[in-house]
Amino acid sequence: MNNLTNEFKPIIAITMGDAAGIGAEITDKTLAKKEIYDLCNPIVVGDLNTLKDHMKVAKVDLKFNSIEKVSDAGFNFGTVDVIDLKNIELEKLVMGRPQAMAGKASFEYVKKAVELALDGEVHAIATAPLNKEAMNMAGIKYAGHTEILADLTNTKDYAMMLAAGNFRVIHVSTHVSMREACDLVKKDRVLRVIQIANEVLLNLEIKEPKIVVSGLNPHAGESGLFGREEIEEVEPAMEEAKKLGINVVGLYPPDTVFLRASKGEFDIVIAMYHDQGHIPLKMVGFELGINVTVGLPIIRSSVDHGTAYRRAGLRLGTGDPTSLIEALKFATQMAKGKFGSKKT
Fold first, then answer.
1. 0.85 cut: is pTM over it?
2. Are residue 250 and residue 312 in the same domain, yes or no?
3. Average pLDDT, the chain
4. Which of 3, 14, 134, 282 gives 20 to 30 Å between its CA and that of 327?
């Protein structure tokens, strides 16, 4: 993150997340830090009254500027620019519990932010946590942010990337059963994820990215003794990637490759399924971890934690904004790589 300059400050839309969780609290805490305004021009897509109410919980002193469109924003530290969707009735909101009103509202924040990004009014979006159960209660049936974003942007080839500092993982599959995850390890999909990983690293100004591929099976299949996916699907994908000029290495056993990557030996690990990538990333840097949906036509980063309903329900102000801060830093870096030279 040290290569950021002040020549171009991207506009980042922050979605407030589930109003019954810690989203509003960590948003307020994040935007009470001057360093954020030194990095980027943030606006919030959310509910103004909820953000005001959570100032007391967050123990910060902020002013708010309700805006209709991005061009009305002032981007002044101390005054938070908010596109207020007015979709939370505070007197009906029960903190710390999934409910349809909050689920519907959280989806609407993401939908609005995606529209702004697709229209070129913001350079990236950073999302606070939403809750799948709450959305389902409102009749909005998605497995999570990743699937929402893919649907709203009509994207078929996408992947989930997690990052904690320079330790990065990207997934061949995410929100599916283990049985289905094994079936999804196919040459074309593995190759596409390798390509997406390479594109992201180049956009992060890593000049010669080194990508490592984890095996699916124990010992990366042990030459077919413990499974043939590596031989029949993964290795052919790697060979195709090498022909395209991508620096990809492996296959390495999943029980050692993440440790090596965490020590800086590789720039990113291709993980075969959700938990294979999530567990080591969260072990290494739970508070610093961020979630990035890559392969989209827009830039999106997110906190790598949930709504923390139990903590939010206590209203003690213990929500940690670190992950949202890191998500904003990452979104800024990606936006500078994509838009900085255009000075848009």
1. yes
2. no
3. 93
4. 134
